[in-house]
Design goal:
CATH superfamily of the largest domain: MetI-like
CATH class of the largest domain: Mainly Alpha
Distance between the termini: 60 Å
Strand content: 5-15%
Helix content: 55-70%
Strand order of the largest sheet: 4-3-5
Largest sheet: 3 strands, mixed
Order of helices and strands: HEEHHHHEEHEHHHHHHHHHH
Shape: elongated
Structural class: mainly alpha
CATH architecture of the largest domain: Orthogonal Bundle
Number of domains: 3
Amino acid sequence: MSLPPMTVDDKAAQAGGGVHVDGASTRELTGGAGLGSTPMWRIRLKLFRRSVATMWSLFRENKMGMFGLGLILSFALMAIVHPILMATVWEPAIYDPVSGYDAVMTEYTVVEGEPTDPLSEIALERARLRLNPSIRAGDVVTIPTQPAPPSWTGETPHYLGTDAQGRDILSQLLYSTRAAFFLGAVAAFTTVFIATTIGAIAAYFGGWIDGGLMRFADLILLMPLLPVLIVLSAVFEMTMVLLGLIIGLLSGFGGVAIVLKSQALAVTVKSYVDAARVAGGGDWHVIFRHIIPNVLPLSFLFMMFGVAEAIAIESTLSLFGLLNVPMTWGIMINSAQTNGYLLSGTSFWWLLFPAGLAISFLCFGFFLVGRGMDEIINPRLRAR
């Protein structure tokens, strides 16, 4: 009984891997076996792992992208640490970010006239109204203070102080990190799923389908995003999930779809797309197996920018009090505004700066990662 003739790939595999696929020899992809006897999923998995390793090695050389990744990982650690602290160290009645309360006792020196240091002095008239009419100038009184400045001593220290309701600022800051990541993930994945699908369909079919989808995208671009969300917040009970889906829908059908359609057009003219058609592949098979996988790298780039946009929008809506959520960074700033501390300058800095800096740095981190990915996806930027 004669053996079947060896193929070129089989001979190359036995000879040491003369045939290469995406930079990998057949021996590396098949483990020394013939291509015909190796499952296709195993070859694809090895190619995917090789591609990821190559992109990671390129990304590590980008200092800007690595710095942004470090910022994101720092906030991820904050999100993980909060439930651990609540379960092991912090008393929920005091440190719960929504319902906690702690009456911080602060010593004040009673002075006549206006105090020169509001954090350590109190006017005589005010002290007599709040405590005792017999108080005199020069007396030292103890008053429960809210909002209280940061304290590092005592049985229940508040490292970033408390807000006007006696809630711990640090606990609120850590708790709100989870909400920011959740919203960003919902909005980004929704945007990428819709924009990639719409862009690939428009590029593949062309004609009236392309024209209709792109004109609808132009219409979405003409709509101001923030005013639309403000109106929708007044009509619907806006939760984090609903907000993320709305941001994803408006972004996915808008400018991101137009950019990804341009990338998909460059893919549809490739020879392997024509080969898939000749081999009998249907329209949807070609779109989802050949076009969309080659558009995904650019989609992931817009995912990074989408997370930053969603966090910034949520903070704005929370500042206006339009979201039905227990606690976010925007709500922390809204609480300061409601109690009259928004224009207090640096006198009550702990009410504004932690939340504001958290919003800025997390958005900045995703932006830097997106810029780093852009240099990987765009060879001309990488060469520069």
